[in-house]
Amino acid sequence: MTLKSDQHAVDYAMKHQIVHTLQKYLLNPPIKLALALSLPLPGYALLETRGRKTGKPRRTPVGDGHIGNEFWLVAEHGMKAGYVRNIEQANRTKNV
Fold first, then answer.
1. For residues 29-52, b (16+ Cβ closer than 10 Å) or e, as one string?
2. 72 is in which domain, residue-wise?
3. What confidence score (pLDDT) does residue 34 get?
4. 55 vs 18: CA distance, rounded Å
């Protein structure tokens, strides 16, 4: 690796950590609450998966990807997203 690619990796890891922390503690809680109370939030859906380690239900706000009979997900953090790893493990989800 070169110095430039090392710096890119550090920058990416830092961005991921900052965005993850903001979403987990600042942005997602009020969105989750609003969706749980059935308040309409255009563009959002609540996805329920089973925790891959605990087996407990986990609810995550995601972009509303309903297109016909399909539901599309675009994960900002790809396979690093917890809900993506839960889906991969359990192979089942529920749109709440």
1. eebeeebeeeeeeeebbbbebbee
2. 3-95
3. 92
4. 27
Q: Which amino acid makes up residue 87? A: I
Per the CB < 8 A criterion, the answer to whether 71 and 95 are in contact is yes
> How many folded domains does the chain comprise?
1
Kindly state the helix (H) or strand (E) to which residue 67 belongs, with its residue range. Answer: strand 66-67
Q: Which residue has the tokens 């690093």?
A: 80
Q: Average pLDDT, stretch 3-20?
A: 80
Find the CATH number of the domain harbouring 26: 2.30.110
Q: What is the pTM of this model?
A: 0.69
Is the sign of the CA dihedral 16, 19, 21, 27 positive or negative? negative
